[in-house]
Amino acid sequence: MRFKRAIYTIVAVAAVLMGQQAFGQNSSINAFSPYTFYGIGDITTPGNAILRSMGGAGIGFRSAYSINSMNPASYSMIGQNSFLFNFGMEGINVYSKNAATNTSFNTFNVRDVSIEFPVTRGLGIAFSVTPYSQVGYRVSKVDTRPDVVSDLGYVAYNYDGSGGVSQFKLGAGWEIIPRLSIGADMIYYHGKINRAFSASITSFTGSDVYYSVMGQDDERVGSIKADFGLQADLINNDKNRLTLGATYELGGPLNTKVTRIVPSGNVITGDTSSYENFTSAFALPSTVSVGVYYHNNKMSLGADYAFSDWANKNAPDVDNGVAFRNTNTIRLGGEYIPSPGDVRSFFRRISYRAGLRYGDYYMTIRDQAISEKAITFGVGVPLGMTGLSMMNLGVELGQRGTLKAGLVKENYVKFSVEFNMFGEDYWFVKYKYD
């Protein structure tokens, strides 16, 4: 009875947090970058706080005490009488600069909510809600052409964007034979992105400001995809485990429904609007990832490589000088625990993590290829004597962009807090007494 009440409480809390996560993705600024002006915005780093603190390397990660949504084959690792519940939050501080200005922005939001439980030995099910992409920008541009200034005055164009896309995953992992597991996730992408623009005129002969044009795009995303995973233990004994992992994520159209409110007539003097509804051709890439993960009683090391074919799925935006590119990403990381089973020393049971990540941004702008790089650090603080439940703290220091061609260079700091809760009871057993 007590266990059932605990489960109901956990599910209720998860439902509330999932609702907040989805709502936050739909209506607030969760990122702040001019690079989110195009495409679907910033693609978030996958994985829980443990793996993100290790550079994001997790394709080969298997654990009976932690949920790994990066590879559904890992769900088969859960114990027969276990229940896992994770939820985390993330804060981001972004510092941007170009040739003329410097800006900064910070935000803090719910990052992950996930649960995992067994069906039978070697078969586990997991459900998670995580952000997939985030949009947030405010961009201004002043038209300095002499003919425009002399006829109208100073014309400033303003662009604002907010929102993002969440991914809901429901998957299963199955150990089909000893040391070999397969898995699959059904993924539902859901979200809303708002993009608004306006043109304001400051009279050349006075100080009055007039807003002559205002419009916006409301983009609504609702699409179902899937991913598939495999994990094979090359070494698995009492002291060492070496796991090879691979995943394949289906790409294809995101089925984004766009409602566009646009001015009719002259872009400066027009004051009427028209409505247009259409489906965007934007598509998600197919992604192939491979990874290897080594684990012993004190140490873990992981390495991943991922390839995504963005350019094969999306046409370039010639008018804005934007083209999609296929991306390559490398993720490396490790973890060290001085003495995992030492119940006499709390500090010797703390996990220490570090990693790095390097990859391509999925667009080129003004013929400039943009790279992303980050180093990560983290600790896992055990909750209780066994340390099976943990509070995970992580920091990521990253950089993206360039000052070439009038673009923006960004430095950022991400802080993450995640609670990884482990519980035990028997599942799918009919009790004689309750």
Structure description:
This protein is mostly beta strands and 434 residues long. The chain has a single domain, classed as Porin (Beta Barrel). It contains four helices and 20 strands. It has a 14-stranded antiparallel barrel. It has a two-stranded antiparallel sheet with strand order 9-12.
Structural features:
434 residues; mainly beta; Porin; two-stranded antiparallel sheet; 4 helices; 59% strand; elongated; disordered N terminus
| Strand percent estimate | over 45%
Q: Catalogue the unreliable spans.
A: 1-8, 18-27, 265-270
Secondary-structure element order, as H and E?
A: HEHEEEHEEEEEEEEEEHEEEEEE
| Helical proportion, percent range | under 10%
CATH architecture: Beta Barrel
Would you tell me the overall average pLDDT? 85
Shape: elongated
> Class by helix and strand content?
mainly beta
Q: What fold name stands as the CATH topology?
A: Porin
Number of strands: 20
CATH domain class = Mainly Beta
* CATH homologous superfamily classification: Outer membrane protein transport protein (OMPP1/FadL/TodX)
Radius of gyration: 24 Å
> Between the first and last Cα atoms, what is the distance in angstroms?
6 Å
Total of DSSP H or I helical runs spanning 4+ residues: 4
Can you give me a brief rundown of this structure?
This protein has 434 residues and is mainly beta.
Walk me through the topology.
Blueprint: H1 2-27, E1 42-43, H2 49-52, E2 82-97, E3 102-120, E4 123-143, H3 146-151, E5 154-177, E6 180-202, E7 209-236, E8 240-249, E9 252-253, E10 257-264, E11 272-279, E12 283-284, E13 287-296, E14 299-308, H4 310-313, E15 322-324, E16 327-336, E17 351-365, E18 368-383, E19 389-401, E20 409-424
Antiparallel strand pairs: 1-4, 2-3, 2-20, 3-4, 4-5, 5-6, 6-7, 7-8, 7-10, 8-13, 9-12, 10-11, 13-14, 14-16, 15-17, 16-17, 17-18, 18-19, 19-20
